[in-house]
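Re: [ENG-882] Designed sequences occasionally contain unexpected residues at chain ends

Forwarding the minimal case from QA. Structure tokens:
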């Protein structure tokens, strides 16, 4: 194997995603050949002794890639201190070693969830910079109008930060729009996955979410996978996901809108005022065209 950054080795070994692996290094829990590793260090996993909390890291020659149709009532985590059921309880024991969920689904949300021991792969699927969009089907109470939906599409502020633009497409409505019990289904495609984002978005416009399920991870779909079941990804599906996340997606540039100075914007700076007129400054001023010259009467007197 070739020399590569230590956090990348840890991610590929399934110890943790790359960002978490960097946190482990900052905490001084990672060593290479007995020396505490720091960010920027490189190693060869074939010849160097890499340890986390004094345990040797073994780089797997092959990885496990699973697709789970998560049911409601399961936490997207490896374990839970409060004793709630986690998605790992739906995975057979022989597949659990170093397995981590890719991204998150809320406790009451169902749908497609990837699990893998390939930390580098997990990072590319879950981080917005790699452009792997996730698609959800959401049933909301009532029927939002287009102005409300456009507000969500453009992005709204959640916890002090604006959400990225998203796609929202009408699917179907149940019941009359005039009926109090009417509901509407939408397909929502997100480029980022913040905690309870879809639920919070529709709550902000007064249409609470009644049901939410993820139906696609990038190009990956499986409408035939029963709720609570899981399967291994095919080589074709893994390659397809890798190609989808092969390049870093640039952030869209923020548009600049010209604004007139008002109450909420600073006024344009003004030029400094000219100094006030004083008699002492008369001798320094050059005569202007509108003022009579003081030298002309003197020349006229000499002529006489």
């Amino acid at each position: 194997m070739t020399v590569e950054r230590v956090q990348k080795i840890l991610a590929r070994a399934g110890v943790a995603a790359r960002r978490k692996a960097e946190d482990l290094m900052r905490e001084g829990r990672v060593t290479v050949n007995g020396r505490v590793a720091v960010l920027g260090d490189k190693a060869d996993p074939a010849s160097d002794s890499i340890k986390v909390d004094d345990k040797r890291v073994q780089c797997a020659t092959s990885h496990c890639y699973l697709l789970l149709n998560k049911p409601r009532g399961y936490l997207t985590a490896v374990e839970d201190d409060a004793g709630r059921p986690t998605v790992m309880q739906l995975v057979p024991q022989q597949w659990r070693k170093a397995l981590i969920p890719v991204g998150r689904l809320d406790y009451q949300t169902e749908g497609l969830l990837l699990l893998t021991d390939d930390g580098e792969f997990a990072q590319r699927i879950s981080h917005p910079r790699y452009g792997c969009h996730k698609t959800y089907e959401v049933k909301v109470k009532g029927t939002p109008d287009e102005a409300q939906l456009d507000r969500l599409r453009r992005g709204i502020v959640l916890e002090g930060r604006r959400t990225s633009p998203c796609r929202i497409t009408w699917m179907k409505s149940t019941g009359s729009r005039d009926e109090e019990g009417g509901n509407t289904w939408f397909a929502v495609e997100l480029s980022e996955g913040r905690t309870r984002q879809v639920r919070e978005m529709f709550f902000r416009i007064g249409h609470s979410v009644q049901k939410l399920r993820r139906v696609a991870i990038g190009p990956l779909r499986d409408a035939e996978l029963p709720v609570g079941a899981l399967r291994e990804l095919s080589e074709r599906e893994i390659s397809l996901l890798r190609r989808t996340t092969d390049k870093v997606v640039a952030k869209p540039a923020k548009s600049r809108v010209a604004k007139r100075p008002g109450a909420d914007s600073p006024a344009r700076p003004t030029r400094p005022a000219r100094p006030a007129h004083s008699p002492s400054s008369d001798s320094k001023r050059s005569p202007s065209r509108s003022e009579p010259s003081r030298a002309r009467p003197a020349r006229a007197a000499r002529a006489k």
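QA comment: On inspection the terminal residues look reasonable. The longest strand covers residues 209-217. Proposing we downgrade this to a documentation issue.
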